[in-house]
Design brief:
Blueprint: H1 2-16, H2 34-40, E1 47-59, E2 64-78, E3 81-92, E4 98-110, E5 113-124, E6 132-143, E7 149-162, E8 169-180
Antiparallel strand pairs: 1-2, 1-8, 2-3, 3-4, 4-5, 5-6, 6-7, 7-8
Length: 181
């Protein structure tokens, strides 16, 4: 009986003890290259896009205006940092209707969310070479469950003014972007 118990115990130990992996003596894999790291976590928010949304302007005197926004732009990303440029049109009330050229720089919080700083040159009535304002601000963008679609929100204030068509104001913009690849 004692020989049977010892044999049963040895069999049980053999069953529950993990076997040595045959690849354990092959060494560690080589370090990943930059291209492999970028490919392993592609950002949903890179490339070129078209956008549409609403912009609200809050003036220092208490006046408020609202405009529709349409535009296009592109983002270039390296790892988690990106640089972007865009062109927008603001359509609606006459005193805030116009166009803008903008730059954005930020970082990816994860592959589906970005935070960024922005600078815009805005001019009334789409006359970008005439009087205008420089806006400084920031924004956030998050990818939505629909392929290529994202939502964004931005806030900016008039930092510098040129010409008679400019005012002290704070501007907010919310909208959707659709990326084409």
């Amino acid at each position: 009986m004692r020989k049977f118990a010892v044999a049963a115990f040895a069999a049980l130990v053999a069953l529950v003890t993990p076997a040595t992996a045959p690849a354990a003596d092959k060494g560690s894999p080589p370090p990943a290259t930059l291209e492999q790291i970028i490919a392993a976590s592609p950002s949903a928010l890179r490339g070129c896009y078209v956008e549409a949304g609403l912009a609200g302007t809050f003036l220092a005197v208490g006046d408020r205006t609202a405009n529709g926004v349409a535009g296009f732009g592109c983002n270039v990303k390296v790892e988690r940092v990106f640089l972007g440029a865009n062109v927008r049109g603001f359509f609606g009330e006459a005193e805030t209707r116009g166009g803008s050229l903008g730059l954005r720089m930020g970082f990816a919080v994860n592959p589906h969310a970005d935070l960024y700083a922005l600078v815009d040159w805005r001019a009334q009535d789409f006359k970008l070479g005439s009087a205008g304002q420089v806006y400084l601000g920031g924004g956030a963008e998050i990818a939505l469950p629909v392929e290529g679609l994202s939502a964004f929100a931005e806030g900016a204030w008039a930092a510098s003014k040129w010409g008679s068509a400019t005012r002290d104001e704070v501007s907010t913009t919310i909208g959707l972007r659709w990326r084409f690849r």
